[in-house]
Amino acid sequence: MEIKLIETKEQFDDVIENSEKFFLFKHSLTCPISASAKEEFEKYSQESVIPCYMIHVQDARKLSNTIVQDFAVKHESPQALLFNGKSVGWHESHQNITNASLSKAVEYAGDDLP
Fold this sequence. Notes:
Helix content is 42%, strand content 25%. It has four helices and five strands; from the N terminus they run βαβαβαββα. It has helices spanning 9-18, 32-47, 61-71, 99-109, and strands spanning 3-5, 21-27, 52-56, 79-84, 87-93. This is Bacillithiol system redox-active protein YtxJ.
């Protein structure tokens, strides 16, 4: 599945209102660890039936901060978050973002795919 870029709060609000389950990847455009994690996220997204989204934290700092406040998840980048309903069911950061960890997160969250 294609990764879609989210750039505004309005886009994010639309996703959260219309998706039962989705991944959000918070990507730093300048960090080599984030580049590596992005590669893993891209590998996962190619096989995923769960929608995958990304924000560039440098370009969407306000949105990134809003997510921290609204969902009580400490900001890190890179960071992957699995939203289940309107809450964060799982999150991981840095080198712990792998194709395998993303797949396991979905298994842990249950088989009720969107």
